[in-house]
Amino acid sequence: xxxxxxxxxxxxxxxxxxxxxxxxxxxxxxxxxxxxxxxxxxxxxxxxxxxxxxxxxxxxx
Length: 61
Ligand SMILES: [Zn+2]
Description:
Elements: E1 14-20, E2 27-31, E3 36-39, E4 45-47, H1 48-57
Antiparallel strand pairs: 1-2, 2-3, 3-4
């Protein structure tokens, strides 16, 4: 089996993402493995790509 560095091996599998939920504005957590983000409030699941695109259109200033 190939070895690889897993940055999440000693961490919670969810990492805090720097984005807000597209539905309710809650905190999104990035699920490290599948490129998805999960809202901690409404449990909505979004593709990271989707969230990045939305945030590019609406820069946080
Ligand atoms: Zn939400």
